[in-house]
Amino acid sequence: MGIMTRHLNLRTKGELDIVDITDDIARVVNESGFESGIVTVFVPGSTGALTTIEYEPGLLRDFPDMLERIAPKDIFYEHEKMWHDHNGHSHVRASLIGPSLTIPFKDKKLALGTWQQAVFVELDIHSRTRELILQILGERSLTKQKNHI
């Protein structure tokens, strides 16, 4: 059993940019040398979020629409009293979705459903450079473990 930490950098286009990071996570897991385990992806900050969706045009429109219904941009947020940065809705939306995602893997393959992709959702009102933290907890195959002794 081992633990490995890696980073993934991405540049977002701004509010409601939904970035498919599935292939990036799969690449890091494959390069880790672990055969099975879990990978946790975490975004530092309070205006970015991670989740899974079916990454297709209809849902890429539906997801932002859902966020607007749940936490509208055009209402008052107490956050504005403190910072006056016009992103109170961004913080609320990020807290609803969450800052992390954990995916199991086996035989170096992510255990995602056929139509399920891991995505980063930019909720801040500006484009941002984000550094995601990937922490992998895994096991190497018994054959590879014996070769390391």
What does this structure look like?
It contains five helices and eight strands. With 149 residues, the chain is of the alpha+beta class. The strands form two sheets. The chain has a five-stranded antiparallel β-sheet with strand order 1-8-3-5-6, with helices on one face. A three-stranded antiparallel β-sheet has the order 2-7-4. It starts with a strand and ends with a helix.
Q: What's the quick description here?
A:
This protein is an alpha+beta fold. Helix content is 31%, strand content 35%.
Please outline the helices and strands:
Layout: E1 2-11, E2 18-20, H1 22-32, E3 36-42, E4 48-53, H2 57-70, H3 79-83, H4 88-97, E5 100-106, E6 109-110, E7 117-122, E8 129-139, H5 142-147
Antiparallel strand pairs: 1-8, 2-7, 3-5, 3-8, 4-7, 5-6
What is the percent of helical residues?
A: 25-40%
Number of domains: 1
Strand content: 25-35%
Q: Quick one: CATH superfamily? A: YjbQ-like
User: Uncertain regions: pLDDT < 50 for 5+ in a row?
Assistant: none
Whole-Å distance between the termini?
A: 14 Å
Q: What is the radius of gyration?
A: 18 Å
Q: CATH first level: which class? A: Mainly Beta
Give me the CATH architecture, please.
Sandwich
Mean pLDDT value: 95
Derived structural class:
alpha+beta
| CATH topological fold name | Jelly Rolls
